[in-house]
Amino acid sequence: MRLLVDANVPGAEACFGPLGELVRMPGREIDAAALRDVDALVIRSITRLDAATLDAARAKGSRLRFVGTCTIGTDHVDQAALARHGIAFASAPGCNAEAVVDYVLGCLLTLAERQGWRLGERRVGIVGVGNVGGRLLARLSAMDVACLACDPPRAEVEGHEGFRELETLIGECDVLCLHTPLVRDGPHATHHLLDARRIAELAPGTLLLNAGRGDCIDGQALRQRLSGQGDISAVLDVWEGEPGIDPALRDLAQIATPHIAGHSLDGKLRGTHQIYAALCRHLGLPARLGLDELLPVPPVTRIALDDGLEAEEALRLCLRAVYDVRRDHDSLRRESYRLGMAKGFDACRANYPLRRELSTLFLELGPKAQALAPWLQGAGLNVI
What we know:
The structure is a single chain. By secondary structure, the chain is an alpha/beta fold. It folds into 3 domains: 2-91 and 264-293, 3-Layer(aba) Sandwich (Rossmann fold); 97-256, 3-Layer(aba) Sandwich (Rossmann fold), CATH 3.40.50; 302-383, Ribosomal Protein S8, Chain: A, domain 1, CATH 3.30.1370.170. The chain contains 15 helices and 14 strands. It has helices at residues 12-16, 51-59, 79-84, 97-115, 131-142, 152-158, 166-172, 196-201, 219-228, 247-252, 265-283, 311-322, 325-339, 341-350, 373-379, and strands spanning 2-6, 21-25, 40-43, 66-69, 88-90, 123-127, 146-150, 175-178, 207-210, 233-236, 255-256, 302-305, 362-365, 382-383. The strands form 3 sheets. The protein has a 6-stranded parallel beta sheet, sandwiched between helices. The protein has a 5-stranded parallel beta sheet with strand order 2-1-3-4-5. Helix 4 crosses helix 5 and helix 5 packs antiparallel against helix 15. This is Erythronate-4-phosphate dehydrogenase. Pathway: Cofactor biosynthesis; pyridoxine 5'-phosphate biosynthesis; pyridoxine 5'-phosphate from D-erythrose 4-phosphate: step 2/5. Its EC number is 1.1.1.290.
């Protein structure tokens, strides 16, 4: 069996090497010609598998029978076209959800420090309460941060209790976090969910954060609001037109990162392992390799704190010991100026440095810091 795996999928040799001949290729270079002699394909979100690509691959004699994406999102894959060609499909739901929540908390605490406000005094609206949004809601609620949730597909199935309309969140929340998949059609379409009208309705002082899909926001309308009135803030990890994103919007965002919110090593390896397990099931083989065997020891495992820090300061310190979002903001600006936008964007992703999740850190609190324990545990720390 011949397996083609995106060059940026970690742990591929350990997981897929024993199953057959392993070939690595940059994700953006995977096309119909590359699929000709491939039995199984393992990708990430930058590889687009549409009907035209799959039809062309089949016309070239492709024997592809399995596609796995090591990501939560699946909008880059035409699943109907896969089914038409008899190709099995698997994704990795939830694999990097904790990393995205770490990213969001890091951004919120960074902006709070930069702009002079406190997270505990804000009301956060979460749009899309799935794998990521649900975890974000749970952590913020455990930290006593006021939250409102909007998820029309879930509300339709589960009932409307606990869910609010998007207009309510726009009108009542200081922070708006988008964690929706990209759905282009139907009653719950999310393409340009934040369109020009809704962006205009955002109250002055609102912070808009998008770590879902870039096309869920009308980038041109957001750029006009930021450059015109300049009375709201934006944190953007996902963008329209990736990797050739709008440089003006990059410069206007308070934090601008190259689609890396979920790029923890833990999340990536979790995604790899989920697809490895799915491929083993497809082949009728046991999955002999465990996730724990893939994960290395974290570089920072323990921090001790005593008196002198308030809760938000303590959490900011711990988060930055594991992951400092400012590094990724600076990296995108530096590499996009050095290499050009598209190449710089992809270079940041391809050369992404080691990053672990907040849950890998153990926090020892001294006697005078014990009062911080419930709040920091709620944020996701292992408090000793």
